[in-house]
Amino acid sequence: MQTTQIFNCVTCPYPNPDASVRLFCFPYAGGSSLIFRPWLRSLPTTVEVCPIELPGRGLQMRLTPFSRLQPLISTLASALLPYLDKPFAFFGHSLGGLVCFELARQLRREHNLSPVHLFVSARCAPHIPSRKPAIHALPDTEFIEELRRLNGTPDSVLQNTELMELLIPILRADFAVLETYVYAQELPLECPITVFGGLQDKEVGLQELEGWRSHTIAAYNLQMFRGDHFFIQSEQLLLLQTLAQHLHALT
């Protein structure tokens, strides 16, 4: 059983105390808070962007990555509480989408708090079982081939033996979080949900994205972009323009 860790997961490279909304950004499997650094100058000045740094990477490199979702969610909820003194929104890509959804439910259960908007990117609706076989326990060679197929890790990284020795335990833990997740039914969220998807994404199809509609009693919106599972990189400019439009409406 994984024990709860105490860590400071919230980063805020450009503090904005006058912002009216905080946007917490949750990375994909193996990702760190650094993937959101280019966003900080592209979103409305009324929004304070707070990338989340999960254990095992960045400033949290010395901490053991979580391999199960519930301990991660419990720890995140405690860590975020001091930052929830003003309206807040969540954005999560792939693994991050599942994390921020379950975090929203945890905050509702335990603290009667809710994000003003949930942005989910490249993640199937939580009640839909994965169509893919689990990969987190594969031998290293096969595991790396699966990472190459997903197209989220540059070949230069995959071919760097020393770097992959550091990354593989983090990636295995992150995929274990996804692949051992079991959905539990609760009432739909009361905040709007906007879902982003990739038109060429072979991991998450349109029907799986549409499934998010049942998880809110508020507005639901689906927007598709060119690109595969990592359109967050290839279509970053357009994604940020779209996200900025939604965030403007919150402030």
Automatic annotation (TrEMBL):
It holds the Pfam family Thioesterase. It comes from the Bacteria. Belongs to the thioesterase family. SUPFAM superfamilies: alpha/beta-Hydrolases. PANTHER family: S-ACYL FATTY ACID SYNTHASE THIOESTERASE, MEDIUM CHAIN (PTHR11487:SF0), THIOESTERASE (PTHR11487). This is Thioesterase II family protein. Residues 22-249 form the Thioesterase domain. InterPro entries: AB_hydrolase_fold, TEII, Thioesterase.
